[in-house]
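ping. complex inputs:
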Amino acid sequence: MLNRTRPRAVLAGLALLPATLVACGDDGASDETTTAVVETYAEGVYTSYVATLDSATAMDAAIDAFVADPTDSTLAAAKDAWIAARDIYGPTEAFRFYGGPIDDEETGPEGLINAWPLDEAYIDYVEGDATAGIVNDAETYPEITADLLVSLNEDGGEANISTGWHAIEFLLWGQDLSLDGPGERPVSDFTTADNADRRAAYLAVASDLLLVHLGDLVDAWAPDADNYRADFVALESDEALRHIITGIGELSRGELAGERMNVAYAERSQEDEHSCFSDNTVADIVGNAQGIANVVTGSYEGSSGTGLADLVAEVDEDLADRLVAEVEASVDTVAAIPSPFDQHLVDGVSDDDPGRVAIVAGMDALELQTETIVEVAEALGVTISIT
Amino acid sequence: MTVPPRVRRLSTALSPVLLAVGFGAWWFSASRAEPPPSALGGETTRFEASRNSFGLAAPTLTNTERRTFEVGDSFFTQNWVTAPASTDARDGLGPTMNARACSSCHVLDGRGLPPDLDDEGAELGLLLRLSIPGADPETGAPLPDPAYGGQLQDASINGVGAEGAIGVSYESIAGTYGDGTPYELAAPTYTVDDLAFGEAHPDLLVGPRLAPAVFGVGLLEEIPEADLLALADPDDADGDGISGRANRVWSATLGEMTIGRFGWKANTATVRDQVADAFFGDIGITSSLHPVQNCPGVQVACAEAIDGGDPELTDSRLGSVTFYNRTLAVPGARVDGGGDDDLADQILDGFGLFDDFGCSSCHAPTFTTGDSDIAALADQTIHPYTDLLLHDMGEGLADGRPDHLATGSEWRTPPLWGLGLIDDVNAGRFLLHDGRARTIEEAILWHGGEAETSREAFRLADAGDRAALVAFLEAL
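pong. complex structure:
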C-alpha cells in the first residue's frame, strides 16, 4: 500500500478493535490539549498549502516569463522557482495516507500533483525515440489545453502520468543522461526545435493545472468554511488523532524509508529516484522528514501551536522527548546524504561508500522513529493502520 | 453493570474490572458454541480494520524481509511507463495492456470493480480472457485467438492502439425468497467491441475476470497438496452432490504439471507464475517466464514498439513482487461484533448456518500450512474458507470457456477471508468472478450446480437466518 491509492473520504470510524474504545482522556491526556493539537494541525495544513500555492504561483510566473521569452536566464529562473516551490511542498506529504483532501478516493488530486514515475515518452521525446509523446503528435492532439491533460488523466480510470511536479520538472530539465549532474534540456527545445511551441504550451498548461489543484487543497483546509477542515476538527478526537498519526507513520516508513529510499538503494537503478530530472531528490527526502517533525512539534510553514509531542508529554514525558529527538535526528540524518542522490545508485558503488552508508543511516533513523510513532499511538489509545 | 451474554477475549484485557466480568461471562459462554475464528491468517493476521486492511505487511516478517516487501510493494503499486524512460527499472509498459500498474485494478491491494456503465472509460478491474476451442496438447492450456491472443488488451501506449474494447450489458432477473420477498439479479452479457484487427475467430470464447484481492496467497500456496486432494471427490463417490476436483496446470516456475491454486478457474500453480502472468497479460511487462512481447502476428505496430529491456522485469524484481504478494497480512475477522452483543450472537448463529447450509463443504474453513521458505508462512493454522478445488456452479454462472481441466461451468471456490472489508477498502463490493453480484445475498443466489442445495437452503430460510448468515460473512 503506497501512494498509488484511491483512498476514500471515510471519516466515520470503521469497526475497530476494543483498544480504540479507550478514550484519550482515560490515558491522562487532556481533552483541551487534544483539541489544541487537532486545531494546530488543521491550521498548519492550511498554512503549509498556502505557502506551497504562493511559491507555485511564483514558479508559474517564472514559467510564463520563460515561455514568453525563452533564454538561458529565464530557463534558469524557472528552474530555481520550481526547486523553491517543490521544497515547500515536501513537508505537506505528511498530510497524506488517511483519505484526506490530498488523497480522497473521489476527488484527491495527489495523482495529478505528484505522480511518479513520470511517463516521459508519453509527454515528449526521449533518448531513443525522437518523435515520442503528446508534444510531437499534433495529429492526435491538435491543441494542448488543460482540458486535454485532465481528460487524458481520466482515461482508463487510473491516475495517469502527464501532469504535476514531475511533468513540469521534465519539461524544464529534460532527461538526466549524465552521471553527475541534472538534465540539460536546451533552450532551443522552446525556440527552434520541432514542436517548440507545443512544448511551451504543455509546460504552461501543466503549471496552471498545478495551481488549480493546490488551490483546491487550500480551499479544503481554509478556516471558517463549510469544507473538509470543518468536518475534520469536528471528528471524535481519537479519530482525528488516528488520521494525523497514520499520516506521519505511513510517510515515515512505508513511503519514505521504504519506497523512496530503500527501493532506490536496493535496486540501484540510477534514475529510480523521485526528482530524477533536477537531481533534487535529497531535498525531497529532507522535506518529507521535516513534514513529520512539523506535526510532532506543532511548527508548520506559516503557523505554530500545540504539537503531537505536547499531547504525548501529558501521558509519558520520556516518550514525548524521545519522539521529538528522533524526528529531529531523522531530518539531520537524511540532510547529511550527499547530493545528488542518484550517484549512490550507480552499479559498482560499494555499500561502504559514504553516500550509501548515509542512505542506510537515514532509513534506520526513519524506521526507528516509526516504531516510536506506533508506541505513541498506543500510549494515546489510538489504533493506527500503517503498512 | 449487568453481565453481557458473552464477552470477547480481547475486551478482557482492557481492565481488571472487565477481566472480572469477563471471567463470569467466559464461564457462561463456555457452555455455548465456539465463536468463529478471528486470526484467519494465523500469525500473519493483522486486526486493524481500515481502508488499508488488505495492504499491510505480515507482522512476523524480519526487518530484512520487510525491506524486500517494500521493494515488491513499489513495483506492485507504481505505474509502469513507456520505454525508453529515465526510470529504466520501470519502463516497458504495453505495447498493449489493460492497466499501468498492478494497483490500478487491485486498488489498495484489494478487489477490482466492474465497468461502471455510467462512467465511460473506467474499465479497470475487469478483463476478458479469450480462447478458441481446443487445448494445448502438452499443458492443457486454452488456445489463444490467432489475432487477439489469450486476453483482450483494451489499452495501449501512444501510437500502437488497443486491441478492442470490453462491452457489457446487464439484464435483470427477478426471483423471490421462500418467504415471498422479491430480489433481482443482474445477468451480464459480454462482447468484444471495436476490434482493431478484424473479426475474431468465429468460435471465440470469452471469459470475464475481475481482479481479486491479493493478500493470503502465500498461505494458500503452502497448503499441502495432499490436504487439498483429500477434499476432492471428482466422481462424487460420497453422493453428496458435491464433486470438487483439482485443476492440473503447467507451472513455468516449477517446470512441471501440478495442482492449480490461483485464478478464478485455478489455472495457475504458484504465486510467482500468477505475478509473471499478470505482468505480461495485464501490463505488457516481459519476464523470464514470458520473454517475448505479447504481439500476435497481425499486430505490427505492437511488435515494432520499443521495449523496456530483455526482460523488462528482472528475476530479482519478479521475486520481490512475488514476496510482497505472499507476505501481505490477512485481515482478522471481526467476530465479536465490535462490542455489539446482539451482533455477536447473530454472527455466531450465522457461523452455525454456514455449516448447516452446506457452505463449508466447499468453503473449507481450516487448514494448516506446511513448510515454507518464508518462516512467517510455515505451520500456520489458517481459515481461508476455500478448498481451492473446481466445482460446477451451474449454467447461470458459466462462461463456457474451459481452462485446463476446468469446464465452462466450473469455478474454483474463492476464499472468503476479508469479504466483509472489501467495501471499506475498495469503495464498492462487487462479487463473483465478474463482479455481477452487488451484495453478499446476490452472490449466494447466483450459486447453482453443485451449490444449488446450499443456495436453496439460504433462499428458503427465514429472514432472520438469512441475515445471520450474512452477518457472519460480513464479519470475515
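Chain B touches chain A through 60 residues (CB under 8 Å).
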